[in-house]
Amino acid sequence: MRVRLGVLGLAAIGLLAGCADVVDGNGALGGVPGHSGASSTPDFPGQTGAPSGSASASAPSLSPGGSASGTAAPPTPCPHVTFAAAKLAFDCLGSGFRADTGGSIWPLRESKTVESATGWVVEEGAGHWGATDGHSLAAIATNVRGQMADAGGYGDAPTITTLADDDTTVDGADAHLLHTRFTLNPTWAKSRKTAVKQEQLWILAIKVGSDDVSLWYTSIPDLVKDLWAKVPSIIKSIKVG
User: Fold this and answer.
1) Residue 49 carries which DSSP code?
2) Contact 128, 207 (CB under 8 A)
3) What's 16's DSSP letter?
4) Which of 10, 78, 159, 194 could staple 92 via S-S, CB 3.0–4.6 A?
5) Taking the model in full, what pTM does it have?
6) Rounded Cα gap, residues 241 and 82, in angstroms
7) What is the three-class DSSP state of 68?
């Protein structure tokens, strides 16, 4: 993912200043009153304005924990993250990751720079959605992916290919896995002087209560594609509760 200057990784999956949030702990799809969606820090080197097609300011966002965010303990750092606000714990992809809890989309992002010239990162993180409001786990995962793409973290007009879109379980809890390959627009990639050609994104929407959902994700560019094979073991490490 691209990053904004001064913020690691997907500052809400690589958001531009003024870009929208994704899920905010109340389970709303398509709009959350009272959320400006603006990030306090820019996320991409050399860019300050939102890209064309970026998510609207009314889009929902992942909350640090919904109504519980004020009382939950802060997340523990890598190599093993416990994120009480999202009721999730999980292993990190490797060493050298730094945590950021100020993103506009993902309230917890562990990231590591893999291309210093552009600030491109590999990242992993989580957030709390809240009640489903009648939406399926699949719909929630797809909503988050769409807003991540609209935010511009994969450049302009990437080709989006769904590799898996399956119901599953995580630590015995109902879940839905959405696995996506983003192929960067070659013209855009050349203009940004990045060697990244493709990036794979895994999103898990997980039931952490009877009507309570949290999400986990990792986004890994082909510059470190050896990590793609590690994702199943990371998913197996996820604990709910």
Assistant:
1) S
2) no
3) P
4) 78
5) 0.78
6) 10
7) helix
* Alpha helices, DSSP H, located in the chain: 137-150, 186-192, 231-237
* Residues in the chain, total: 241
Give, in order, the Cα–Cα distances in Å from 90 to each of 10, 17, 160, 182, 220: 18, 29, 27, 24, 17
Question: Beta strands 120-130 and 159-170: pairing type?
Answer: unpaired
Query: What span, in angstroms and rounded, lies between the C-alpha atoms of 193 and 147?
Result: 24
Q: Which domains does the chain have, with CATH numbers?
A: 66-240 (3.40.1000.10)
- The answer to whether 166 and 136 are in contact (CB under 8 A) is no
Q: List, in sequence order, every residue forming a beta bridge with 150; answer none if it has no partner.
A: none
CA atoms of 205 and 59, how far apart (whole Å): 18
Q: How do residues 155-205 score in pLDDT, each as one tens digit? A: 999 999 999 999 999 999 999 999 999 999 999 999 999 999 999 999 999
The type of residue at 25 is G
- Residue 45 belongs to what H/E stretch? none
Work out the angle at residue 169's Cα, subtended by the Cα atoms of residues 177 and 201, and round it to the nearest 5 degrees.
Answer: 20
pLDDT digits (tens, 9 = 90+) for 206-218: 999 999 999 999 9
User: Token match 């300050």: residue?
Assistant: 48
- The reported pLDDT for the residue numbered 71 is 67
* Whether the Cβ atoms of residue 120 and residue 22 lie closer than 8 Å to each other: no
Tokens of 236: 């197996």
Signed CA dihedral, 111, 113, 115, 120: sign only? positive
φ, ψ of residue 70 to 5 degrees: the values are: -80, -15
Q: What is the 8-class DSSP label of residue 237?
A: H
Question: What single letter denotes the amino acid at residue 22?
Answer: V
Q: How confident is the model at residue 1 (pLDDT cuts 50, 70, 90)?
A: confident
